[in-house]
Amino acid sequence: MTQPTPAIVAQGAVQRLPRIALLLFCVAYVLPGLVGREPWRSADISAFGYMAELARGTSDWFAPQLLGLAPKVDALLPYWLGAWAIQLAPSWMASDLAARIAFGLLLVLTLVSTWYATYFLARSPQAQPVAFAFGGEALPPDYARAMADGGLLAFIACLGLAQLSHETTPALAQLCFTALTFYALAALPNRTLFPLLGAAAGLIGLALSGAPTMAALFGAGGTLIHLLDNYCDADSTRKNTMKGGALALLSVLVIVLASVLGLWRWRIEMPEPSWVEWRSLARLLLWFTWPAWPLALWTLWRWRHQLFRRCAPSRHLALPLWFAGIAVVATLSTASADRSLLLALPALATLAAFALPTLKRSVTALIDWFTLLFFSGCAVIIWVIWISMQTGVPAQPAANVARLAPGFAHSFSLLSFLLAIAATLAWVWLVHWRVGRHRAAIWKSLVLPAGGAALCWLLLMTLWLPLLDFARSYAVQARRVVAVLPQPVCVEVQGLSRGQIAAFEFYGKLRLKPAGVQTNCPWLIAGKDVSAPGSTLVDLTRWRVDSRLRHQYDRDEDVVLYRRNASAEPGTP
After folding, report:
1. Averaged pLDDT, 137-145
2. Three-state SS string across 484-513, please?
3. What's the CA gap between 177 and 250, in Å, rounded?
4. Cβ 342 vs Cβ 171: under 8 Å
């Protein structure tokens, strides 16, 4: 006999994850990478450059530009948020930190929205566990709360979330507003005011963050799912139908708003029909969404009878499947595959949560052992390389670092060391706690994956942060350039990336001008390709090479510093 639902959950399995523990866990995930680091190349520093230009009042708020260059992502709201944060920050706070705090709040809102989206979907009638003959099944509020804890843990455990969620880029804003829209559509049958406000903020914010097509598709699909679910519900009400109408109007408003602001851009870029390209995409799908994707597939299989109902698919499956499907299609058809796939994570995490009531004990044990070995191994590698950099023992890891990042000077931070020790001890305690207690908790299988992901991210952002800043930022190169130039000075630039321009303005406080403009600046900074032998883009009758400045890690980021020839000085006959 086929059960009406595959979830068989007793009340004892839905014990709460302590709120203080969940809160501290989220704080430990959000803060590392938010404070204490340099802006990284290239999307992170580029986006910050546009925010700084807006904050200084040197760029149009509806057409942000960085030295005449428009951003690669046609977004407005992310740059506005960063600029407002810079303007409101106290004078003693660094502008890049102020921008990151604003985006850290977006990450917090993403976590909250994902939790509540899973909670309200778990409250759906079709998502409830099987009722026992003599009682004892999980109560709906407790069941939904436990499932929401599992969904949040699955979201944090996704490997692709860590770096992109800690950058000040439109990608994080898109993730936040996607999660907010997802929550609004999940909660709409149960609530009215906050879901409608959330839908308005989410859809409009997503459109203003450079993804109006995604906003329109999320809104249209969510409206259809809501109306079909209401039509199939025996207790459907006119109020829920009106909510669907309001949602449809919001979707139309988003389309109109994006058209008025000129945010529509054709970015379809299908992958090349080559094995290398498709293998790269497959690897991205596998590691970026791990461990949510195998659990999401298991959910679709075990709940397949709910997915193919005669009337309409159950909303707790149809809604996250729609969001995840749209994001995956965007991943396969756009150049920024990883940033498009980022938007699938809240929905995939929710689908992964609904696999928890159906997992057998052997499967949960396999997840625990794999997670324990994988993340413990990663943590050991991070510690061994750090110890090698500090002491020279073992010698080979330090030699590899010196070869890959020549010029890097090792340093010791007591605070970072103590935080890393505390995180490692917390991981050991968590492993002991997992195998010794709370074996019946429904969210138990995702504690180690989420804890391991948070552990490795925190270790990277403490022990390896100086090395990562050295390799992934323009700080060292920009300071080398500034050390050569007198202050203040006017500098022309040619062939530099957006990230390099932003870095030279931020670290050097230089007054940069596009080359070719009648500025007669005494200095020129040119990119490697522009100044390569045989290139005619730099007029050597006007300029002479002063110095060649390598990027400390990537040779493609090298620049050449030119000084204007005396014969080309203003007023020279």
Report:
1. 90
2. HCCCCCEEEEECCCHHHHHHHHHHHCCEEE
3. 14
4. yes
Residues 380 and 66: their CA atoms lie apart, in Å, by: 42
Are 244 and 230 within 8 A, CB to CB? yes
Output the six-digit token pair for 99.
Answer: 């921008």
Report the chain's terminal Cα–Cα distance, integer Å: 98
Delimit the domains of the chain by residue range: 26-358, 361-472, 475-568
DSSP state letters, 173-239:
HHHHHHHHHHHHHHHTTT-SHHHHHHHHHHHHHHHHTT-HHHHHHHHHHHHHHHHHHHHH-TT--HH
State the pTM of this model.
Answer: 0.94
Residue 66 has what DSSP assignment?
Answer: B
d(CA 504, CA 486): 14
What does the pLDDT average to over 292-302?
94
**Omega of the bond leading into 488 within 30 degrees of 0 (cis):** yes
Spatial CA neighbour of 279 closest among 211, 207, 337: 337
Banded pLDDT at 572 (limits 50, 70, 90): very low
Structure tokens given for 70: 């428009």
| Contact of 146 with 140, CB cutoff 8 Å | no
Residues 154, 143: Cα–Cα separation, whole Å: 17
pLDDT for residue 466 is more than 70 = yes
State the Cα–Cα distance between residues 321 and 315, nearest whole angstrom.
Answer: 9
Query: Following DSSP, what letter does each residue of 328-375 receive, concatenated?
Result: HHHHHHSS-HHHHHGGGHHHHHHHHHTTGGG--HHHHHHHHHHHHHHH
Contact 119, 310 (CB under 8 A): no
C-beta atoms surrounding 326 within 10 Å: 20
SS3 560: strand
Q: How far apart are CA 333 and CA 327, in angstroms?
A: 10
CA distance 551 to 557: 6
**59 and 66 in contact (C-beta within 8 Å)?**
yes
Residues 6 or more apart whose CB falls under 8 angstroms from that of 37 comprise 461, 465, 468, 469
pLDDT of residue 518: 65
pLDDT at 573 over 60: no
175: closest CA among 19, 327, 285, 291?
327
Look up residue 570 and give its two tokens: 């203003």
Task: Please give the structure tokens belonging to residue 76.
Answer: 């407005």
Whether 456 shows a pLDDT value over 60: the answer reads: yes
Other Cβ atoms closer than 10 A to 173: 29
Contact, 8 vs 475, CB < 8 A?
no
Cα R_g (the chain), whole angstroms: 26
